[in-house]
Amino acid sequence: MGNKASIINLHLLDACNYRCGHCFAHFNMPKVLPLEQWKRVIDNIIANSDVKRFNLAGGEPLLYPEIDNLIRYIASKHIETSIITNGLLLNENRINFFSGMVSMVGISIDSLNDETLRRIGRCTYKDELLNHSHCVSICKSIKTHDIKLKINTLVSTLNKNEDFHSFIKEVQPDRWKILKMKHFENAQYNNKIFIPNNYDYESFVARHSDMPLIAEREMKNAYIMVDAWGNLVDTGTENNAIVASLLEIDFAESFSRLNFNYDVYNQRYVA
Ligand code: SF4
From ligand 1's centre to the CA of 245, what distance in Å? Predict the structure, then answer.
């Protein structure tokens, strides 16, 4: 696959403690792969690609029971690990554990307003959410531990008018990505009502254009995604169709079946 596609996103599980209405991490896979099988997937990718970083995602990756051992295993292979989390389970102990093994923690922060977070579904069924002061404190702790901090903000019909200036100035992320929602649809699920129109998305970006941000308008065919059962999936399809099982087929062969867009990929990871 050449030396361009080097960040592989492992979506460790479907489960999440949040219930975002727009969430596309619906693989209909209630089970999780045991650690030994994830190790086989990781070995396959390392042997058949030039992977530089595994990005652990979900669902909520911190709910994966063996996540600490998985992080240790990737570190033992001298490959970087990053994590994208909703942040609710992050605390000082966990950030301490990451130190030296996880190069970047990304936190999805779509709103600074508790009521909007509830409307988006960024809270548990018991109404636990990442309140502003906890969020600021874990962001600062991540940076103190010399781990890069990334903030992901997904613009939707519910947060399109928000102002993030003071928050971004306060936590000083290494990267702030403003994402455009991707349409996702399968037999049970459709996120169409949450997708903002182009004007609303571009207005959000323009309103923050004095901040160091990355506007991500497109990720179709430019995001290498492994689902919760170890399948490489095609993000160019609206239901993330399975391309191949990485427990059975080598990664290079599986990847060659994807219609991968290197131009968009390079824009996504340039910063
Ligand atoms: S926090 Fe992320 S994985 Fe969990 S429901 Fe929300 S969008 Fe989905």
Answer: 24
Query: Which among 11, 14, 16 is the best mutation to test ligand 1's pocket, defined by most ligand atoms within 8 Å of the CB?
Result: 16
For residue range 215-271, list pLDDT tens digits in order: 988 766 788 999 999 999 998 877 788 999 999 999 999 999 988 877 777 766 654
> What is the CATH number for 57?
3.20.20.70
Q: Is residue 2 one of the residues assigned to a domain? A: no
**Domain region containing 226:** 7-268
Q: Is residue 86 part of a domain?
A: yes
Interatomic CA distance for residues 214 and 193, integer angstroms: 24
Nearest CA to ligand 1 atom 8: 23
CA of 136 to the centre of ligand 1 (A): 20
Distance between Cα 18 and ligand 1 center (Å): 6
With a cut of 50, say whether residue 3 has pLDDT above it. no
Q: Enter the pTM of the model.
A: 0.91
Question: How many domains does the chain fold into?
Answer: 1
User: How many A from CA of 236 to the centre of ligand 1?
Assistant: 20
Q: Is 103 helix (H, G, I), strand (E, B) or coil?
A: strand
Does residue 57's CB lie within 6 angstroms of at least one atom of ligand 1?
A: no
b/e string for 41-62 if b means 16 or more Cβ within 10 A?
Answer: bbebbbebbebebbbbbbbbbb
